[in-house]
Amino acid sequence: MTTHYRPEIDGLRAVAVIPVILFHAGFETFSGGYVGVDIFFVISGYLITGIIYNEIVEGKFSIANFYERRARRILPALFFVSIVCMAVAWVWMLPEEFASLSQSLIAVNLFISNIHFWQDMDYFAGPAEMKPFLHTWSLAVEEQFYLFFPLFMLLVGWVKKWLLIVILTLCFLVSLALSEYASTHHPSANFYLLPTRAWELVAGGIIAVFLHRHRVQPPLWVSNVGGVVGVVMLLYAILVFDQSIPFPGMWALIPVLGTTLVILFAGERDITGKVLSFKPMVGIGLISYSAYLWHQPVFAFARERSFGPISNIDFILLSILSLLLAWFSWHYVELPFRNRKKYTRPQIFKAALAMSCLMIGVGSYGYYSQGIPWRFDGELENLVMVRSQKNINANCQSTPGNLIPLEETCVYNESGDKTVVIWGDSQATPLVGPVAERVDALGMKVRQFIYTNCLPIAGYTRSDEPECGRHNEQVLEYVLEDDSVELVIMLGRYPLQFEGVSFDNGEGGIEHDEAVRAVPMNRLDIADDKLRVDEVGSLLQETVQRMVSAGKRVILLYPVPEVGWDVPYLLVKERIFGIKRFAPLSTSYDVFKQRTASAYEQMSRVVEHDNLIKIEPARLFCDTYLPSRCATQVEDELLYYDNNHLSVSGASMLTSQIFDEMKNKGWVSEEELKLSMLGGGSTGGAMQQDDSEYVQREAGQ
Questions:
Q1: I need a labelling partner for 292 at 20 to 30 A (CA). Which of 267, 545, 592, 669 fits?
Q2: Whether pLDDT at 10 is above 70
Q3: Binning pLDDT at 50, 70 and 90, where does residue 681 land?
């Protein structure tokens, strides 16, 4: 590797960072812009391996010097951006988001943010847009690589050059093979973790060793062809790839090989080298690290501040802002700390240790205090705390990969002789507490059979989750065979799975919930949507018919209105930013009716029976408090704790409606109705405060 400055490499950095920024800004043209990270990996592997190998050959490599250079290069700008992010978050972020940011701050400073985000979320999922530190996963991959790679080079760097290239090539192939396997078997781990990313850094390392002390000097036409082909491969990946590509893996060879071709062939004489050496390209390349650090927080906080979709023009302006901030931090933060005369090695190491400890301490406080809710006044804090209701009974419901056996599910009022079964997806969970309170005085216990995003229909399953179907089969068998079961309450988010798309309220409230389809267990690949919904509807009819025919009383709840906005989140944000609301938050009743048309059609086909009550929550929430609107709040009481789940208040209202209908049907007497309203009052308070305070025990314990 030659030691002279190569401006085309800085230009290549610009080619890497600009698509990443535009991809995160949501420009569909740059649907593969995420490959900019892969370009960075190859460049990093090339430059740093070249430095390590050159110093090993010259006999002057020092681990201390190496980590000093890394600290000067990486940490000052990272600390600066982190401090700014936490300051903005203190003012703008709600406790739940602040706690999440604080947790990721800890991971950033331990250089394990790739592991943190691998366990926390999908990189391409909607909520990822709101994570200011999400992009630091790539820094963690690099730093993990450079924790081991210098030691590896000390062990093998002394061998002959050709043998070292063979060793590195073997490492490249092993990591690539692992990445290709994981791309289909463990896609999230494949994206985030070092073992499946190392081959991209090693690719740059192979080129660095190959070019050590000499440059490829092919004929000019070969350099032109090689450089242009490399750029074409990069542009192809940036413009054609999208989120459906299994990545990384064999597909990632396109941007990786494209980058290596540019490094090999681009220079002072050829077209590619001249274009990449263009001063504006080099200028962006010089600030590319800071630009990478800034763009994600700028976008995330802009989304945090916005109350609706951000326009393309706004994202262009935000991208320019990212570059301006990048120049500032490059000039006033990065460059000064690279000056060895200004800051000595001991100063750099001591400052890095002190700042890391401070950041970890701040992150720990923010996380373990649950987002420091006392940052807000009492009224705002009360609104914020509604969001915590999502944790009530959450440990009692099954989730994909965590199927709770029926005999281990939570039981409430365990001494009761008769059993009420609450069966459904997470929308049914809020009903558990209010129902348990009401039936406690009637000598009835409650069993919670909840599976996240799994409708209460036997013979059906989620298109992506067969365990859901097996769970439902077991629930139906239990209901039919257990003589103590007297009442079954069924609630699920039918529109989400019948329509197969997340909810858009038409007024700026667009959900990012996982959109899955309801399918018959024996026809998982059914393609025709109308036929699919009809067959699942028939299974619902059969499920209810089997229970009522067996003497079980069934409450079949129609869809709860979806909202689109996270209700407490939106209302608190409005107050934080001084936006006055002149009418209660609500959604269109017409949009609700369009959204639920298929679900209503199928549920209306369920045959009427003496043991069946059908209840429409929309009759309670829609066109009542506000004409032609579905309410999300009644005065200061919020009816939802997020964008589609009822709060304790909302669930209590729906429970009252259920018991009124039961009284009208003759299932409970007037005296029993009054008794149920008086019973279990203290339990309700505990439910609202904390799930662990509620009287619940697992069966058999």
A1: 267
A2: yes
A3: very low
Cβ neighbours of 26 (radius 10 Å)? 14
> Judging by beta carbons within 10 Å of its beta carbon (0-12, 13-18, 19+), is residue 445 exposed, middle or buried?
buried
SS3 call for 424: strand
pLDDT at site 617: 97
Instruction: Scan for tokens 């210098």, then name that residue.
Output: 150
Buried b (16+ CB within 10 A) or exposed e, 511-539: bebeebbbbbbeeeebeeeeebbebbbbb
430 by Cβ neighbours in 10 Å (0-12 / 13-18 / 19+) ranks as: buried
Contact by Cβ (8 Å): 85, 297: yes
d(CA 497, CA 506): 19
Interior angle at CA 580, CA 576 and CA 583, nearest 5: 125
Q: Does an H or E element contain 488, and which? A: strand 485-491
Two structure tokens written together for 181: 């396997």
Q: 388-423, pLDDT tens digit by residue?
A: 888 888 788 888 888 899 988 999 998 888 999 999
CA gap 148, 323 in Å, rounded: 32
Distances in whole angstroms, Cα of residue 216 to Cα of each of 2, 54, 58, 264, 588: 11, 17, 22, 7, 66
How far apart (Å, rounded) are the C-alpha atoms in residues 445 and 417?
7
Return the sign of the alpha-carbon dihedral for residues 600, 605, 609, 612.
negative
Q: Could you tell me if 47 and 260 are in contact, meaning their C-beta atoms sit under 8 angstroms apart?
A: no
Q: What is the mean predicted confidence (pLDDT) over 445-452?
A: 94
Query: At how many degrees (to 10) do helices 220-240 and 7-24 cross?
Result: 10
Using CB atoms within 10 A of its CB, is residue 119 exposed (0-12), middle (13-18) or buried (19+)? Answer: exposed
Residue 552 in contact with residue 488, Cβ under 8 Å?
yes
CA distances from 358 to 83, 144, 353, 614 (A): 10, 21, 9, 57
Classify domain 404-561+593-618+647-698 at the CATH topology level.
Answer: Rossmann fold (3.40.50)
Lowest mean pLDDT among 150-159, 303-312, 540-549: 303-312
C-alpha 621/C-alpha 584 separation (Å) is: 13
| The Cα angle at residue 35 between residues 32 and 37, in degrees rounded to 5 | 145
pLDDT computed for residue 121 by the predictor? 67
Mind spelling out the 3-state secondary structure of 67-121? HHHHHHHHHHHHHHHHHHHHHHHHHHCCHHHHHHHHHHHHHHHCCCHHHHHHHHC
pLDDT number for residue 279: 94
Q: What is the mean pLDDT of residues 26-54?
A: 95
Helix (H, G, I), strand (E, B), or coil: what is residue 504? strand
Residue 217 has pLDDT above 70, yes or no: yes
The strand pair at 418-424 and 485-491 is best described as: parallel
Length of the chain: 701
The angle formed by the CA atoms of residues 507, 453 and 397, to the nearest 5 degrees, is: 125
pLDDT confidence of residue 3: 56
Quote the longest CA-to-CA distance of the chain: 98
CA dist 175 and 375 (Å) reads 46
What's the confidence (pLDDT) of residue 216? 66
DSSP class of residue 331 equals: I
Residue owning tokens 């991971």: 107
Q: What is the mean pLDDT of the chain?
A: 90
Instruction: Show the tokens assigned to 294.
Output: 């800034």
